[in-house]
Amino acid sequence: MEFVVASAVGVLTAGGVYLILRLRAFPVILGLALLSYAVNVFLFASGRLVINAPPVLSKYGDATYTDPLPQALVLTAIVISFGMTAVLVMIALAAYLEAEDDRINMDDGQAEQEAGEPRP
Amino acid sequence: MNHMIIAPVILPALMAPLLGYVMRHDVALARRASFAATALLVAVSLYLVSLTVDGATHVYRLGDWPAPFGIVLVLDRLSALMVSVTSILALIVLWHAVATRWDESGRHFHALFQFQLMGIGGAFLTGDIFNLFVFFEVLLIASYGLMIHGGGRDRMRAGLQYVVMNLAGSTLFLFALGVLYASTGTLNIADLALRLQEIPAEEAALVRVAAVLLMVVFAVKAALFPVQFWLPGTYSNAPAPVAALFAIMTKVGAYAILRVHTVVFGPDVAATQGAVDAWLFPGAIVTIAIGALGVLGARRIMPLIAFSVVGSMGTLMLAVAAFTPEASTAALYYMVHSTFAAAALFLLADLLVARRGDGSLAVLPATAQNGLFAALFFGGAVAMAGMPPLSGFLGKLLVLDAVRAPDMIAVSWSAVLAGSLVTIVGFARAGSILFWKSTVVAAVVPAQDAEPAEAPALAGPTQVAPVMATLGLLTALSVFAGPAAAYFEQASMQLHDASGYVDAVLGEGNTGKPHADAGGGH
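Predict the joint structure of the above. Result:
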């Protein structure tokens, strides 16, 4: 169990970092999505790994329970990363349509040079 | 509980949807409402400052849940100071945006502006580190909208880069919070401070990882080397009023380092001793060098100012990295100063670029108000470079005084002094190209049959007033340096008194005994 979760976080993170380093809009968006999956699984694990236990205390004795707080944190993180990914897709699309180029890195010299030319 | 403490979050949060949904077709109404809300925010923040003058730490428990279980907002001198700096800056920037009609060049400027204020205010007030993450996201998502306000090719590309950079930073923030929660079982700042003191140094590997990860996240916001590279591209391509408002965003990072790495990972916590300041100090030195060289090498006006912001963040973080009350006093003074100095320069650059029609540092015919712009640029450059009589000089003097421990004086003093010299040369070069050399170039005489080109409108009093107001604030900050420094000194004493913060948040009785296991028995 620990091995599966740990390697899942590791593989997702490695894939995400690799994709971000491609520096083109689409791979970067996928990479950030993978990174956010990795961090969501990681946050789950931060409350210790418990299987088949409710996230509430039982008043009928010492039943096992899983820590509910990381689940709330993960929910918040999922909502935020979902919204952010939507914003990112829209901005990436707009930047691509404006510049006809999906590279993330900006070459300042080139940008200045091209800015002088008339735009279509 | 004083409900005014949450007003800096609630007021913009209520205003923003009203501006976005109800008033989006009526610019005049939206402007009035936005002004009214921001002016009210200034009044509220000044009231909050008056609450903290006696030194009390006010705690606002959301939903009245007791401290480590519910979210708390904490108002002390530092957070009240930061909220009031934000609101005053916001009022000036809003004035400029309306006077220059920047707010009409895209949609929803005022709504995004209010959301931005909500995020910044919340980040300064919160006493819960996960809540800090949430407010970071609020201020970031509003800043994405403001950054690409008005659109355009270079701005969209710079905006995309900015968004990607900050999303990666947010993921890192979550990793740090996960590590912190796994090793301590809490996310309340005061509670974290207690738990960390109980962790022995030999079991602290995970906590040290969390401390350094958090520092990296905040350093991204504060534009500290080696994660400063996003700032020049972002600030120089953002709309100028937005860049002026972003002057406070880098300070959010600096504030978070000040707060978290003194209260939680304080210098006396065995678990994280030396994990952070060992990296912060060299990072600040290199940041000063990058900023100064960038100012010297910039070929356009906006990147020039953006690099001077990088340099000022380096000076600020140098004082923060010392983690002593004296150094924090200097850091606070310099923080307030550099926020307004950067804002003044960005606002002035906007007026200038709009009239020159070109943002490059090239010799072009002088604008009609060359003398006025030259004087304002001179004032802003004097403030930014740290020359007397404006507050930059006093701020740098305080920073120099704070970092003169024998083991760091050689490096820190040379960095600050050499950085200031190079910055002065850079600004002098830019100013002489922009304002002196341009007076000897004759205006291009249009051919006789050509239509006379329409001269750009003069900058009216309402458009110059925000720059004047910012420079006036800097003058006031140097004239009233004594009372201001006294307040900053009390703020930093309060900041470094971590046990006072913990007592206020958790209640007196809780601080002595270790907590029951998380989740058990509550």
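Chain A touches chain B through 44 residues (CB under 8 Å).
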